Amino acid sequence: MFVISDPVSHNPLLLKILDILAHASEILVQEFDTYASGKVFKIDRKEDTSPVTQADLRVNQYITEELAKLEPFYPVLSEESESVQRSEWKSFWMLDPLDGTKEFLHKRPEFTINLSLVCGDKTNFSALVVPCKGVVYLGYLDQHPYKYEFQSKR
Fold this sequence. Notes:
The protein is α+β, with helices and mostly antiparallel strands. 29% of the residues lie in helices and 29% in strands.
């Protein structure tokens, strides 16, 4: 079930987060187009041998830098970044800049950007972005989820 009313227009912080996610989505689609077209594209392996691409790293860097500009500030725990001080954080953003790297590498547009705000032991907010569809699903603690569609610039 999705909420009918629009929680976005009344929340300036959420508007900023959606702007960040919309731009990150555009970056990820550009990277996907680059890879799918056969252009030069960097793919490395993590210590666990799973792939990490230039798309993972580029979106990670962009979102991390933009979240650092928000008030209130929360540190970012990302799949693509080291976070040695995590145990000291009471609240933080949890980020997977490209969930579905293997789908991405198989040229299937079935990947997402996942962002959550964790406070204590609860996830208070989460966003699941589907870049190739221009859609984000927003979830809040104790509320129904909301589907939001980006205005495409493509």
